[in-house]
Hints:
The protein is built from twelve helices and 13 strands.
Amino acid sequence: DSGTIPERYAEVLRAEGIEFEQGGHTASRVLDADEVVKSPGIPPTAPLVKALVEKGVPVISEIELAGRYTHAKMVCITGSNGKTTTTMLTYHILKDAGLNVGLAGNVGRSLAWQVARENHDVYVIELSSFQLENMYDFKANVAVILNITPDHMDRYDHSMELYTAAKFRILRTQTDDDYFIYWLGDPIVSRQVEQLQSHARMLPFSETPCAEAAAWTEDGVLNFKTSNEAWEMPRHDLSLPGLHNLYNSMAAGLSASALHISPEVTCRALADFEAVEHRLEFVREVDGVRYINDSKATNVNSTWYALESM
């Protein structure tokens, strides 16, 4: 990036005694590094990144770096749509349960900042495919893949296989102590799971009852059944409307169950959660017309889900 750093960020760097450049890079300094932490927005095809790889300099993500310096539990959420809502909803449940929990990734403060300045027991992290590309040893204690639909195709040579592989990196270091939560109804996710060799405990969710589902709906009731417990709540008690938010609520509820949060706390939090700003956010009604702010919809599928829930 040849741009300038916003002054508020430059002030932090100066205060911390961190050297920085702006308006361009001195390539020799970057290439002399022992390791490089790359912004996820910089593609692997960038000339300087390619030069680093050719030289054998490790290139990692900020999440990978931060994970080395904490023993906190990590609840990691990815997918093409619904990541932010599910991340915020899961954080809300854990916060209500009284856990010392941080919010990181694409929402909240960076994980590295929180690990350096705070001491949380659990982090709920929204992860994009871009962030997952440069994660290697980082461990997700609870990994969630909501769905996979075409997005950022220019980054992945217009290949769904490459995009899917980036998403599934969230599982790469899981063990039999960990959990993998996913939507049974997503054809791409389900196909990938069939080929998966994972030791994690599977907690899939579905709109309708099926033998393998750990969460489903039946006769207007949302059901959860895991090795820890079984419980239910009326679907109409969920605070968020729409089928896609039903899935988000199931994923958040299963994540909470994996961390042994009580059903009572989870039900209460699922019922009183306030929608994320700019996502199906009611603005006002004028002349009988309801206006909804869904400006965070970034692809066709997310817009479709929003319309479906109205």
